Amino acid sequence: MPFFHAYGLIVSLTSIMYKRKIIVLREFEEDRFLKAIQDHKISLLPVAPPLAIFLEKTPKLLNYDLSCVKEIICGAAPLSGNTELALKQRLKNVSIRQAYGLTEATLAITMIDKMSARPGSSGKVVPYMSCKVRDPETGKSLGPNQVGELCFKGPMIMMGYYNNEKATRESFTSDGWLKTGDLGYYDNEGLVYIVDRLKELIKYKGFQVAPAELEAILVNHPKVRDVGVVGLPDDLSGELPLAFVVKHEGVNVTEKELQDYVAGLVSPQKRLRGGVIFVPDIPKNPSGKILRRQLRQKLKDYIGHQESKL
């Protein structure tokens, strides 16, 4: 984890507090990363979803002994339950836990414990904090298993943005709940699940389509290494779900093959009606979050290039 990210900062501080050794790499390189785990017998891996997906999919894992790994803690973005289960099956005897947090709430505000682990869940709200799920349009509080904007209150919440009263005011409800901008829900046991960013939802004919859901499905296709989903503007439907896909090296996969794969697993409004664009990589920030703004710019450039051919 990068040290400037809250996740990396807390991992470093708690490791010093508990007198744990930290292995630091100047930059990420696949074989160097795997060799470091093997040679230093690293037992705890703090990762973001792209690294978890790498560990679940890479054939290079067969060249190294990672039996030392006992626990993986994943944060910074949602990790699908399917990827979590596949990684557990591949590494054997490893515990995988997810956490959810944000800078405005002093890092993790939900955390899964080993006893109540559920694939895809970010766990329960940490002590002294309160959570509610709010309908972003009506402001109404929602019950279990209803998707809405996650809101939090408690001593870990920021006082506000420095010298920016407008941004501070817009980030809180009238009764003091921090609006995270993240969509999620809690189940009957109080376990929290993250769905996607509120502003990143694709609107297809009035239906809301979460890019993260489609990404979680596509990344489990055996020929897909990585994926990012955005909305393709459409006069009739509003937006059409479109996937940027990174293929595994040496494999052949077609646009139709992936469209049919997704269509067999989702409701009609979530199909990849916008198509599939094959790319060499998916732009992400250092903490592993997909840079959808860059993907949308790639889409504009692609559309412009196609129109120039006509």
Please describe what this structure looks like.
Belongs to the ATP-dependent AMP-binding enzyme family. Its cofactor is Mg(2+). Keywords: ATP-binding, Magnesium, Metal-binding, Nucleotide-binding, Peroxisome. Its main location: other. The chain is an alpha+beta fold and 310 residues long. Among the domains are: 93 residues, 3-Layer(aba) Sandwich (Rossmann fold), CATH 3.40.50; 109 residues, GMP Synthetase, Chain A, domain 3 (2-Layer Sandwich), CATH 3.30.300. Helix content is 27%, strand content 26%. It contains 8 helices and 15 strands. The strands form 4 sheets. The protein has a 5-stranded mixed sheet. A 5-stranded antiparallel sheet has the order 7-6-8-9-10. Strand 9 and strand 10 form a beta hairpin. It starts with 5 loop residues before the first helix and ends with a helix. The model has no long low-confidence stretch (mean pLDDT 91).
> How is the biggest beta sheet arranged?
5 strands, mixed
Broad CATH class of the domain at 201-309: Alpha Beta
Overall residue-averaged pLDDT value: 91
Distance, first to last CA: 46 Å
> What is the element string, with H for helices and E for strands?
HHEHEHEEEEEEHEEEEHEEHEH
Strand content: 25-35%
Structural class: alpha+beta
Shape: globular
InterPro entries: AMP-bd_C, AMP-bd_C_sf, AMP-dep_synth/lig_dom
Keywords: ATP-binding, Magnesium, Metal-binding, Nucleotide-binding, Peroxisome
Domain AMP-binding enzyme C-terminal: 213-289
GO molecular function: ATP binding; CoA-ligase activity; metal ion binding
